Amino acid sequence: GAGVSQSPRYKVAKRGQDVALRCDPISGHVSLFWYQQALGQGPEFLTYFQNEAQLDKSGLPSDRFFAERPEGSVSTLKIQRTQQEDSAVYLCASSLEQGGAEAFFGQGTRLTVV
Amino acid sequence: GQQLNQSPQSMFIQEGEDVSMNCTSSSIFNTWLWYKQDPGEGPVLLIALYKAGELTSNGRLTAQFGITRKDSFLNISVSIPSDVGIYFCAGQYWKTSYDKVIFGPGTSLSVIP
């Protein structure tokens, strides 16, 4: 497709369950970002990839959060042992060059932990 | 660390009115960005500003990069119902090895027909 694609769109997880969220960036885009957006808030930075290299993971809330982009295209955000405070929309964005200016966002994955 | 503040937090205006919102920070940014987010969608870029003092328009939207590099404003002229949504400012700064972008908390705009 032409845009950034995220799956699933919605995910309900029981507390303690592991989840994996997928992002398909625009083909050829070097940069990939993950953001967490709580209800009524702006996107909060989680992590940044430049091709397959994870250059910044300073925003990951805990060691339960892990992201990868092994071949420099598709990325997966994994959350282990989910907790209720993990409930949020997880947004993925990609941009053609390094850095985040003029990034294109996916529709997000809404995660609800019950 | 870097943080952005947006005002107002929310606005209720009549269709046809002009809108003004702004974004401030105590830190300097190299690029300012304005995004709009509709319910259930990801943010969409409206305007990008790259130089201090720059004034850029995109249709009915006009944005400016403050000369101190610590603020930016967005104006919408002659508002229409489809302008409803949440407007986020974002600032880009150099962090060690790449240009990082952070977002403000947003301004929610409601347009009354």
Structure commentary:
- The complex is a heterodimer of chains A (114) and B (113).
- Chain A has 114 residues and is mostly beta strands.
- Helix content of chain A is 0%, strand content 48%.
- In chain A, the strands form two sheets. In chain A, strands 2, 4, 5, 6, 9, 10 and 11 form a seven-stranded mixed beta sheet that branches. Chain A has a four-stranded antiparallel beta sheet with strand order 1-3-8-7, with no helix packed on it.
- In chain A, strand 5 and strand 6 (53-56) form a beta hairpin.
- Chain A starts with a strand and ends with a strand.
- The mean pLDDT of chain A is 95.
- With 113 residues, chain B is mostly beta strands.
- In chain B, 0% of the residues lie in helices and 58% in strands.
- Chain B contains no helices and eleven strands.
- In chain B, strands 2, 4, 5, 9, 10 and 11 form a six-stranded mixed beta sheet that branches. A five-stranded antiparallel beta sheet of chain B has the order 1-3-8-7-6, with no helix packed on it.
- The mean pLDDT of chain B is 95.
- Chain A binds chain B through residues 4, 31, 33, 35, 40-45, 48, 50, 55-56, 91, 93, 98-108, and chain B through 4, 31, 33, 40-45, 48, 88, 90, 92, 95-106.
Give the topology, please.
The complex is a heterodimer of chains A (114) and B (113).
Chain A: E1 5-7, E2 10-13, E3 19-24, E4 31-37, E5 44-50, E6 53-56, E7 65-68, E8 75-79, E9 88-95, E10 104-105, E11 109-113
Parallel strand pairs in A: 2-11
Antiparallel strand pairs in A: 1-3, 3-8, 4-5, 4-9, 5-6, 7-8, 9-10, 9-11
Chain B: E1 5-7, E2 10-14, E3 19-24, E4 31-37, E5 44-49, E6 55-58, E7 61-65, E8 71-76, E9 85-95, E10 98-103, E11 107-112
Parallel strand pairs in B: 2-11
Antiparallel strand pairs in B: 1-3, 3-8, 4-5, 4-9, 6-7, 7-8, 9-10, 9-11
